[in-house]
Amino acid sequence: MTRIEIPTPHGPARAELHCAEEGAAVLLLGHGAGGGIEAKDLVVATRAAQAVGVDVALIEQPYRVAGRRAPAPAKQLDTAWLAVAEELGERFDGLPQVFGGRSSGARVACRTAAEGQAAAVLCLAFPEHPPGKPEKSRQAELDAVEVPTLVIQGETDPFGRPKPGPHHEVMVIPGAHALDKDLDALSRTTSEWLTRVLRPHL
């Protein structure tokens, strides 16, 4: 594991690199709004990806690196993410990149997938709407993604359940928003999907 700081227009971000033995693609994973990269689902997804030959970069947004709890505005999150993706693209010699993250990080991955030329998107606990406010849907962010996308959602997640679409599938597993109730299911689903969507590269 290697930690590096990456400059962005909104201050330094940090990437924690977990390399597979022979990485054929890179999975970038972002954290939730109030949490960090030590979230259980991110740790499990990292190990699952490494096991199938995918390098992983756990990305800490600049506001977290600076010690702030409150997330930055969406536009700043997206700009910082794209700066990190560009830097990692050079570091990993142009390997295909899968964008991903949990909760807020999943939204960032969806919004930046086209501009960042992501090969696929992995969403852990996509926050379909704020708890108790189904009228404030974020489904459009997911629907806009045009590369293969997997959403892994807890069956009792108070942030709702996204609808599947032409480019994205929704896999429901036991648990709520933390996705920590059935870590084996999370691991298995992640590795099987990565193997399938990255088959030409692995």
TrEMBL record:
It holds the Pfam family Abhydrolase_11. Residues 25-162 form the KANL3/Tex30 alpha/beta hydrolase-like domain. One of its GO terms (molecular function) is hydrolase activity. It comes from the Bacteria. Keywords: Hydrolase. Transmembrane segments: none annotated. This is Alpha/beta hydrolase. It comes from Amycolatopsis acidiphila.
